Amino acid sequence: MRGARAIIRWAGMSLAVLASACTLLPEQKTVDIYRLPSAQAAVSPPGKAQAWSLRIRSPHANTTLDSARIAVIVQGDRLSTYGGARWTDAPPVLLRARLAEAFRLDGRVASVSTTASNVRADLELDSDLRAFQSEYRGAVPYAVVSLDARLISTATRRVVASRSFEVAQPAEGVEVPAVVSAFGLASDALAGQVVQWVVEQGARAQSSKSE
Q1: How many CB atoms lie within 10 A of CB 31?
Q2: For residue 16, is pLDDT > 70?
Q3: Which of 28, 92, 148, 183 is the most buried (most CB within 10 A)?
Q4: Spatial distance between the Cα atoms of 99 and 196, rounded to a whole number of angstroms
Q5: Residue 206 contacts residue 153 (beta carbons within 8 Å)
């Protein structure tokens, strides 16, 4: 009888301990997942599509930028992230998709692919992502996107052209959704500049190749 009472007492104490432990567990925080806002429709300048093909590689990035966290610099050189907010993917993947979309909307390159599909191409766009973060300039956060681009001949692996691009787009507010919208505009602007540059340099490279 005493043994049964001891077992019952032990079971009751165990349940009490478990119940108290459950109350001490931290509450789960909700994480908002953000897409890079859709690109604006581009208007192709006059001229027919060029016959050469382009493959876009995911930009190289450091471990901080190669993360789904949304980076922010509030003051000085200290890089932090927005709490409770994430991108759908790491910025190099998001920017690669944005660049591919911009080229397809532009229509001046006959064939555009990414390294995800591993399609053979005449030229390859390789790059280093130097910035993809929100930076406070005074009281206003700016979405800053910076890219060092290289256009490479896939036949010779020679760099035929290189250039650096940077866009800083002010956000209309300090809240995360406003900052995300600014990232969309900055990415669109940078992609437009890259497209124009690649089309010009690609045409030049293919022209000298045929001479």
Answers
A1: 10
A2: no
A3: 183
A4: 11
A5: no
